[in-house]
Write a structure and sequence with these properties.
Blueprint (H helix, E strand, L loop, with lengths): L4 E4 L9 H10 L5 E6 L11 H8 L6 E6 L7 H7 L3 E4 L7 H10 L3 E6 L17 E5 L14 H14 L5 E5 L7 H6 L4 E4 L1 H5 L5 H9 L2
Parallel strand pairs: 1-8, 2-3, 3-4, 4-5, 5-6, 6-7, 7-8
Helix pairs in contact: 2-3
Bound molecules: D-xylitol-5-phosphate and zinc ion.
The site of zinc ion has 6 residues, from strand 2.
């Protein structure tokens, strides 16, 4: 059973202290940092862009797991690669040519992820599974932290895990949205090997990051 990785979302961090928050997360045992980029167009919220990611890069050496909730996305991919992203995850709906966008991320020597909204079928990405490093399954409609986990996505996680096994593929399965202490186990048992969490990690146990990261990892 490969190790469960935790990717805390800085969307729930203190935005006035992002550098220190990232250092605290690394010290607390985070495997990577989930950076939610939102453009107020693909999703109804606006967060951070390449200059902020570039400024944060020097605060940690752990990977930046960058979730681009922006559209159109293709022309901005290089900016995020240059800013220090390690994984660049895009939504299929946000590019006119998914193949080209995947190729572009790979040419930039970054890990490539595809993200499925709760109402986006696995069929949309079936033909690309052998070209990507990560499938990011949204368990909320993207745009905000603190939303309620949608249990109907468990079937989707199981299905993508089954396809991964049948085709002997290596992509990671990451789940993002409303992950907490009561659903993390069933999400892992369904096939996820990376959990994103913002609210639970920053708010539970008086914000004890190390403790919250550890609890989420337990199967
Ligand atoms: C939502 C983001 C998620 C979110 C997770 O659009 O993609 O990464 O920040 O936050 P919680 O864990 O609070 O649902
Ligand atoms: Zn996210």
């Amino acid at each position: 059973m490969n190790k469960i990785k935790i990717s805390p979302s800085i969307l729930s961090a203190d935005f006035s202290q992002l550098g220190n928050e990232i250092k605290r997360l690394e010290k607390g045992g985070a495997d990577m940092i989930h950076v939610d980029v939102m453009d107020g167009h693909f999703v109804p919220n606006l967060t951070i862009g390449p200059p902020v990611i570039k400024a944060l890069r020097k605060y940690t050496s752990i990977p930046f797991d960058v979730h681009l909730m922006i559209s159109p996305v293709h022309k901005y991919i290089k900016d995020y690669a240059d800013a220090g992203a390690d994984t660049i995850t895009i939504h299929p709906e946000a590019t006119e040519n998914l193949s080209e966008s995947i190729k572009h991320i790979k040419q930039l020597k970054k890990r490539v992820g595809l993200s499925l909204n709760p109402n986006t079928s696995i069929n949309v990405i079936l033909n690309y599974l052998d070209q990507i490093d990560l499938v990011l399954i949204m368990s909320v409609f993207p745009g905000f932290g603190g939303q309620k986990f949608m249990p109907e996505v468990l079937e989707k996680i199981k299905k993508i895990n089954q396809i991964k096994k049948e085709k002997k593929l290596k992509f990671d399965i990451e789940v993002d949205g409303g992950i907490n202490f009561s659903n993390s186990k069933v999400v892992i048992e369904s096939g996820a090997n990376i959990l994103v969490s913002g609210t639970t990690i920053f708010k539970e146990n008086n914000g004890d990051l190390k403790k919250n990261i550890e609890i989420l990892r337990i199967v």
